[in-house]
Amino acid sequence: MASYFDEHDMSNGEGSAQPRPDQSLLLRILEMARLLQEEMDVEIVSDLGFMSVSGKAPPASKKVVEELETKLISPASACLGKQCAICLVSFVEEDETKVLPCNHQFHSVCIVTWLKQVNSCPICRYELPTDDPNYEEMRKHKARAKQREYEQETLHNSMFG
Amino acid sequence: MTNIAEARIRREFKEVVKSDEVAACNIKVELVNDTFNELRGEIAGPPDTPYAGGQFHLEIKIPETYPFNPPIVKFLTKIWHPNISSVTGAICLDILKDQWAAAMTLRTVLLSLQALLAAAEPDDPQDAVVAQQYKENHSIFEKTARHWTAVYAGGPKSYPDLDSKILSLKTMGFEEHQARAALSSKGWDLERATEYLIN
């Protein structure tokens, strides 16, 4: 009696090392899925890393702090009665102050003490660069993610908007 | 205490005392001693929350490095809230930890705590038992929080059914707060609370 395989004009597959075409396609799809999954995992891991390594942001870059311009309070600006948000004392003539890129002004001593601890403006949290490579990497990563999101939205809007 | 910390607290103290919120009886700060490193705060429970009608007392300790580090704050009044320990009064709030900024003040801290009472963050809990109840059995959570507000913070709403359960545990020899805490964490199931207290 002819075997099942003979009747159906097939080999029984034993010893055939070559994967069939549909099988290799399946393998390739699986490989792609694995890669995608890995990429997602990297993203999740790095997000977690950001949370756990530094719940608190690192100090501002020493160089950037040194390069902040010092501004003396003029008689005219002393009259405005503005105060330093760190020590809550009003600026008086000849006070030495620094202005951050976000335009917030503080006594030099006050803001330098703060920036030795955290890299952001005490009022608006504008972030200055840091000397911490991991934190900077994370920041770039976040900026890229945001940019991607923006691009995707723009693309979506141009197609369906 | 360094000069900047004390000088700043003196200024802030004046700011809180003359603020609109004090006028409206929403927040209050008092000195404990004349060194300005320890204060007592008070916030009113926000309206339309289980804490409405209650007055909550806070212990505020000012570190020497203030305002470069946050004040250390905890609830003295017992409260049932996912982000506040029902045992110690410790608070889980980002601005009192890593999100502190030197431009924040006693006034903004007290207002943030008031906002926390109005909007809990159950996914970032301080008290895991309360947080779980908040998510899984919200009506029991609200009732419990309202009950605690009435008992400990002078809130208006009383629940005779809850009081009678506490009474039955008291007659078994348990202390009142212990009984209340056990019943609260066991969803007011008398049997489970008793079992919990015995073990």
UniProtKB/TrEMBL annotation, chain A:
- Gene Ontology molecular-function annotations: ubiquitin protein ligase activity; zinc ion binding
Keywords of this protein's UniProt record, alphabetized?
Metal-binding, Transferase, Ubl conjugation pathway, Zinc, Zinc-finger
Put simply, this protein is called RING-type E3 ubiquitin transferase
Is Lyase a UniProt keyword of this protein? no
Catalytic reaction equation(s): S-ubiquitinyl-[E2 ubiquitin-conjugating enzyme]-L-cysteine + [acceptor protein]-L-lysine = [E2 ubiquitin-conjugating enzyme]-L-cysteine + N(6)-ubiquitinyl-[acceptor protein]-L-lysine
What residue spans carry the region label Disordered?
1-20
Against Pfam families, the record matches this protein to: zf-RING_2
Family annotation (PROSITE patterns): ZF_RING_2
| Gene Ontology BP, a term | protein ubiquitination
Basic and acidic residues bias locations: 1-11
Any one GO CC term of the record: nucleus
Task: Report the EC code(s) recorded for this entry.
Answer: 2.3.2.27
Which species is this UniProt entry from?
Answer: Patella caerulea
From TrEMBL, chain B:
The UBA domain is annotated at 161-199
Known EC number: 2.3.2.23
According to the entry, every stretch annotated as the UBC core domain falls at 4-154
SMART domains tied to this protein: UBA, UBCc
Q: Where are the active-site residues found?
A: 92
Instruction: Report whether NADP shows up as a keyword of the record.
Output: no
Protein family membership? Belongs to the ubiquitin-conjugating enzyme family.
Name this polypeptide is given? E2 ubiquitin-conjugating enzyme
- The organism's taxonomic lineage, starting at the top: Eukaryota, Metazoa, Spiralia, Lophotrochozoa, Mollusca
